[in-house]
Predict the structure.
Amino acid sequence: MTQTIVDIRDLYVQYRTFDGQAKVLNGVNLTVKKGEKVSIVGETACGKTTTVKSILRILAPQASIPRGEILFNGSDVLKMGYSELNKLRSSGASMIFQDPTMSLNPVFTIGEQMEAVIRYSGQSGVEQKSVRHELAVKALEETAMPDPERILQSYPFQLSGGMRQRVCIALSLATPRDLVIADEPTTNLDVTIQDQVLKILKQRVEAKGCSLILITHSFGVARETTDRIYVMYAGNMVETAPTQELFREPLHPYSRALMSCIPRLSGGGMAEGIPGRLSNYHNPPKGCRFAPRCPEAMPRCHEEKPESIDVGREHQVACFLYDKDGGK
Ligand SMILES: Nc1ncnc2c1ncn2[C@@H]1O[C@H](COP(=O)(O)OP(=O)(O)OP(=O)(O)O)[C@@H](O)[C@H]1O
Ligand SMILES: [Mg+2]
């Protein structure tokens, strides 16, 4: 059986705010196998970043986790001590953010930063400067960066946005990792560069055999890059399936609505978007959080939270429409 790298089970996360507790994650389940590329797709504020930040335990101090488990290679991240967490962040998983200036320090050269990351990875030989330098050059070359020696001597502000993001990809893959998390890595880049950066990310992840969690607003990007898609709505994974299977037959009314918002090249233009708004996290709906916006909601949907139902073909959906008891 393929090894499981990440297993998030029934995860609840809330944020303390002026108006009380915002109950954001509402029982999230997510699994990533070794070498698997997974994407999380959903509207803004549905909890995508919160989900992945919990894996590395880098949530804001206002956050708390009342319930759930996050297993990384079988160990519960929520129970890890300082040294285990350090190991997880330096050699287990790495994260690429939307804005590369957030992860690059403006006062150090790219070379200094890459060498620091390589040094703390604990690989053998990295105590020697020449080994660190060689690994940094190799990592930049692998992301198709021209003139790595010059890049290593540059400060982040001397590079373009696309180059900075490629440096971040090189950084996250310069040392062996089990998992790379990329949180909308191309949103800040122009369209032609977006495609190039995503291709490099996908190709590097595949070459290193590590797993990927990619966050994106775009089903198109998810389809191009990942093997499996998780559709997220208001703190829940409402549906997951292998990419082709999800496109063949999206089951959740939210997935279907979201997919119909993709502009069609064949004509037909843009659909109107999904009527209604994301639910309020301070006072979320009691049953299914999508029920207030769902065209197919039944009385039961407003009362009970639907659990995930396995419909075969590795396809799971959290919706009473697919429950054998139906709307009763
Ligand atoms: N530090 C915080 N304090 C209070 N609320 C927060 C905090 N961080 C996130 N939230 C809230 O949690 C919800 C989910 O946020 P999150 O950033 O996980 O969404 P997202 O799906 O990544 O959105 P986007 O696509 O815009 O990046 C939002 O309503 C947000 O306002
Ligand atoms: Mg986000």
The longest helix spans residues 191-208.
